[in-house]
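Box 3.1 A note on notation
Throughout this textbook, protein chains are presented in two layers. The first layer is the amino acid sequence; the second is a token string describing backbone geometry. Keep the layers aligned when reading.
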Amino acid sequence: MDIPSNDNLDFELATKDRHQLEQMLRKGQEPIRVLRRALILLQLSEGQRVEDLATRMGVTRETIRTVSRRYEDEGLGSALCVKPRPNKLRCLDTGQSRRIISMASGPPPPGMARWSVRLIATEAVKRNLTPRVSRETIRVLLLSRELRRAENVVSLRNE
């Protein structure tokens, strides 16, 4: 979709939203994507042109329009934070996750001194716990379950 370069949006920001955005930018404690969207909203409300703003912010004109449209349609929260994508498939189901954790909580395979993320991923596939799994999926699984490696066994951090 081609957007004219001299396009100005007729955009108004509510006073309380402007105040909230200014405080957010002053504190700087939000993720950079949220702060960038906040700055886009503030600059649009000051009459900045879409083309100039997109160039200055390092985003596309469509991004500028999307942020402003979300603000107008759904409010400040929607404009600042993107909703999670609904149809993302999980790499492992609950049963597979439990079986992998159980395997990693036991002794490592013969000839290995300890479990590594790579070894857990390889053994999970060898033992038919899952058709395939990446090291990153295993790393995230261990982090989400608050697990740590002891000498040769993966165990709960609270033990």
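Residues 1-6 have pLDDT under 50 and may be disordered. Helices lie at 15-27, 32-45, 50-57, 61-74, 76-80, 94-105, 117-126, 135-144.
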